[in-house]
Amino acid sequence: MTRFARIAYTESVRATQRENGSALAAQRQLAEGDRPDPLGPNEAGFIASRDGFYMASVGDTGWPYIQYRGGPRGFLHILDAHTLAFADVRGNRQYISAGNLRQNDRVALFFMDYARQTRLKLLGHATESRPEENPELTERLTEPRTDGRVERLFTIRVEGLNWNCPQHITPRFSEEELQEALQPVRERMAALEAENKELRARLGAPGTP
For the region Disordered, what residue ranges are annotated (predicted)? Predict the structure, then answer.
C-alpha cells in the first residue's frame, strides 16, 4: 500500500491525520519505496470475481464524477500485475467519464463485496483505444461478453491499491449470492422431507408397530 499512501496522503491529509491521532500509522505506510503497488493473487482473484465496480474521474472544472460499470463476472481483465482493462459499451451516451479522461487520465476504482463486507480501492491512469485499433485485445476483453455495443477499450495502469476494513459496510446480497448461500438449506430441507415421507410410509404400512 506504499504507493497508494504516497498519492492519497497529501499534506492537508497528513495535517488532518496529525489532528486526529493517526499520523504515526500513516507515517509507517510512507516510509518504504515509491514503486507502483502490484496486483497480487488476492487482488487479482477479488477483481476477477466482481460483476461491477465504481470508477471516479475528474472533469475540466475540478468536479469528480463517479460511474458504475457492470457486466458478467470477469469482464474487467487483469492483463498483468500492473494493468487492468475492459471493453466499454454504449450506455446513456453522456460520455462524461470518457470526456474527463481525455483531459485527466487519473481514475479511482472501488471494488465492493457487500456480502462479505470487503472493499478494495485502486488508483491508476486510464487510456482509451478503439476496438479496430487492437483486434487481439478486443477479442480478449469481450470474453465474457458485456451486453451492448463496444465503443472503446479502457486500459488502466495501476499506481496504488488499498484494502479497507469491513467497518460500516452494510451487508447486501445479489440474487446469485442468495442462491449460493441458501443451497445447503434447500438440500437439508429436501433430505428432511424425504426422511419424513419415508417415516409416514412406514407408519401407514400394514403391520407397522
Answer: 18-42
State the cell numbers at 122: 485502486
Query: Any idea which residue has 470526456 for its cell?
Result: 99
pTM of the model: 0.80
Same domain for 23 and 53, yes or no, is: no
* Residue 40 to residue 38: CA distance in whole angstroms: 6
Closest CA to 141 of 82, 69, 85, 70: 85
Segment 6-39, tens digit of pLDDT: 888 888 998 998 899 887 777 777 766 678 999 9
The reply to whether 120 and 192 lie within a common domain is: no
Question: Which residue range(s) make up the domain with 100?
Answer: 36-164
Which residue do the cell numbers 487492468 mark?
84
For the record, the C-alpha cell of 46 comes out as 477479488
Quick: pLDDT tens for 88-98: 988 888 999 99
Give CA–CA dist 65/62, Å, rounded.
10
